[in-house]
Structure formats: C-alpha cells, structure tokens
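S2.1 Query sequence (Translocon-associated protein subunit alpha)
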Amino acid sequence: MASINKFWIFCLALLFLASPLIQVARCQSDSDEGAETTEEVSGVGIVDQNTQDLGDESYSSAPGIVTHCVFPKNGAKLVPAGEETDLLVGVKNDGEANLKVVAIRASVHFPNNHHYVVQNLTAQIFNYASVPASAQGTFPYTFAVSQFLQPGVFDLVGTIMYEIDQHPYQSTFYNGTIEVVDASSILSMESVFLVTLGIALLVLFGLWIYGQVQNASKKTKKGAKVEVGTRATSMDEWLEGTAYTTSNNKSKKKDK
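Output structure tokens follow.
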C-alpha cells in the first residue's frame, strides 16, 4: 500500500513539473495558428529598420480592426537583455476597406508608470503590406532591450500603425508585462523539463528496486526453517514402557 501511495505522489509531481512544457506547447500552437493567417496578407515587405521617421504622432484605432500578440515558444515572456526577441502581431480586418500596414513599434516602461519611458525600441517598417477586408494576417516584430537594462519586470507597450483610405491609424496590440533576464542565465525550458524528468525517473526506479529488495527479504524470513535443539536422552527414557523396564524395576525391589 505504501508503494502505491508513493507511485501516485510521483505521478502528481510529474504532472506538476510538466505544466511549463504544456504551456510552451500551447504557446507554440497559438503561434502556428497565427502563422497560418499570413497567407491572406498580400505583398508583405519588411524594409530596413529606422528607414522612415515615424515621428511621435498618436492616432486613434480604426473601427473593425482587432489585434493580438503571440510570443512564439516563449509563453513566460522572458526577454534576454541585449538579445533579439521575436513576437507575432495578428491583425483582423472586419472593416469594408483594405488596410495597409505601415510599421510596428514598441516601448518599455516601468510597471504602472507609463509616463516614464525606459527605452524606445526600434521600429519595424513594412512596405506593400496589406490586409484585405474581412481577412486577417500576421506580421513579425523583432526587438532587443538594452544589454545594460537591469533584470526585472517591465511593461511593454506595442502598437501597429496602418492606413485605411489614406487615413493614418494605430492600434495597441500588447500592453502587458515582460521579464527582462540576464542572457547568460537563461536555460531552455525543454532542457529543464528533460533533466527534471530524468531525475524523477531515476528516483522512481530506485524506489522500485528498494521495494523489490524489501519484498524479497520478507519472503526469505517467512521461508526460513526453525532449528529445534536436541538434548541427550538416557537409555531408560528410550526403553520406558517396555518389558525391559518392568524386569529392571523388579530386580531393584529385590535388592532392597
């Protein structure tokens, strides 16, 4: 019974350890779904970054435009300082006119204090990128925070700029937290899971071996023979109740 309880405890622990990998797989499936929509986007072209001055103008969002964001293979939203991070921006055009994507840009802020900009990230300029009416598309955006930025939790605000009938608009596709980490300390989530799984399997195998040894020792104790000690017996005890004993008792009485 104890071994069964240990086995179920191990299974629950294994499911708990597998949850990060499940989260990664779910993020991967989301990114794949977003990637499939790129077929509906016509003439996507990425121009060199910062080739166009976007200015600091702020525009409203057009009606019927829905945006979302996915961090491929990075459900935890970990951003290594000084290294590139990829995300996908999805745009759904429920309007009646075609949408022309101009650029994607983002900025890093302190949590709950967007008035102070920690870093303006590089803008990604698009050329001849459009989303037809009643269609959707996905656009890549690559950014890198400063290598001197201290690790911690920050807010990332990302906007996509577009035009409809030559009128400029913009929509916020992400306004949430990211965790900036030291690039040298990042371990692959898959690697951590595999190492943890290997250790757990070794522990389970050790418990199984221990249980087999315990069962074998119990069976050995039950099957062991009990040795009965012997004691010396006299000749009279062996001949008790025989004719020799009766005659011997009569001779003893005559001697008396």
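Helices lie at 2-36, 189-223, 235-238, 243-255. The radius of gyration is 40 Å.
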